[in-house]
Amino acid sequence: MKGLIFKEIYLTRKKIYISLGIYFFLMLICVLVKLSAVHGNLRLLSEEAVKNTTNITFYLAIFGTMLALSGFVADNINSDIVSRWSDFQRSTPMSEKQVVSAAYISTGIMLLSMLVVHILMTLMLCAVFGEIFHAYFVLVFITFAFLTFIMYIFRLFCFYRFRQQKKAQFVFSATFFCLYLAGCFVIINRLLAYQDKFKAENPQLDIEPGLSSDLSDNMEFSKYLKEDFITVKNFFISYWWVLVILLIALSVALYFISVSALKRPFDLAGQTLEDKKEKKSFFGSLSKPKKAAKGDEN
Amino acid sequence: MSDYENAIEIKGITKHYDGFTLDNISFNVPKGSIMGFIGQNGAGKSTTINTILNIIKADSGEVKIFGLDNCKHENEIKQDIAAVFDELPFHEQLNAKSLDKILKHIFKQWDSNKFYSYLERFQLPVKKKFGQFSKGMKMKLQIAAALSHNAKLLIMDEATTGLDPVVRNEILDIFLEYLQDEEHSILMSSHITSDLEKIADSVTFIDKGKLLISGYKDEILESHGVVKCSKSDFNNIEKGDYISARIGDYGVEVMVSDKSVFARKYSGLVIDHTTLEEIMLFYVNREKKEWS
After folding, report:
1. ipTM over 0.95
2. Using a CB-CB distance cutoff of 8 angstroms, which residues of chain B are in contact with residue A276?
3. Residues with Cβ < 8 Å from A229, sequence gap 6 or more?
């Protein structure tokens, strides 16, 4: 397994360098803006403008590490298939558990190392900007890192299950598109609920049914949004452990189904001729009958 | 595991695909020998090899490697198997140095010194990325990696296809060296029969998923022969006495599987020696019986 972990990290190193380079460049810009605010031309603006500018650059620098997160994911599964490393892997004494574990561990190692970089840079930026270090600077990063990890292991599962880049990519993208649509649905429902609340509180106003295309006039919406935000924040403060348990359970479940997906031979052997009826599925061409090995096609 | 007669034992392997069936393939690769696995493109060589390596599962049949079932003892067996494919199965961004670091943690008996000595012998650069290697260099690299973990069995799937004669010759010499120790065995699939004639101890012919012949190469070459005769002489030969016949403008070439029996029956006809290539050609056309 050490060999596989080394392979994953070795193949990802270029992405890591680029991601770190982008992050350090961003940080440099933020520090230069801060210096300009203290010693340069920016200090000629109003005090509030300078304060807002330095605030924005400070938080951009702190949370800019999340831009670099995707570079720390050992997403080499596609190049494993293209290079036929996955064929070679099957001829070696590596078990499916070792293969999947190596992918998880290598990404975990890289995200942890990014966490260390994040903490060190945050401490340094707090010193430069004269700000107090808060725990949520790290908690937000950990949350995003974990979500990135979940996305990565789900993508890994799609490749192990479908064994083809196009199918795996389609399923992965379709899943997140569905989540995006669900998110849009939730947001629109909340906005309609805000509109109803606003109508109930202001019956004298003649508000047309349906969601207004221009919500900027109704600043009251920000009141309802704040209420929702506080409710969610309080929920997470009380029940953050539920989310952690759910995410860990999801990771473990994806691990085991990835292992079992990888155990399946390339052509779903074990089926008799009678079992191999043409499957009718929503995805149409995704259920085409399996072909013979490369080189044995007629 | 040290006490076994055959490095590979295949019994009744059957595998169905749409438009292709591997039908009841059985053969053995004796320990300490090299077997040539011959067939034209699409014959079933890769499917058979994938079944041996447990990359795909056969619908029925049994595969034993070193006397052990290849499914039940998969990880144990694979420590002693080296597979060489027709294309380099390593990422193009890797180089030989990084490959050494990866493989030494995969194979328990990986020998880095041996690997580097093969690299030096094959004149392969250590730090150059594989994407910049030529086809011959990629094949030599695969072989260097295959020979560096003391594997007892080398399985080659069309490994010499596309290589120039100089490189092929070099590789064949390396295999002969590898086999000097009676503990090592090779299964080599190819449709380049001239390579196998040089080094194989036994051959197995496969065509359209069916086993045609399997046996010692010398015995097969000794028993088979080509009769060159006129069309009128050919008309006197019974259909059951030959494999197939190539009808030309000026004569007929007839492939026979038992020279001695044929010679006794048709004493006037001269039987020439044949090659594996000719045997493959005539067997592939056996259903047509007469072809041109």
Report:
1. no
2. 16, 18
3. none
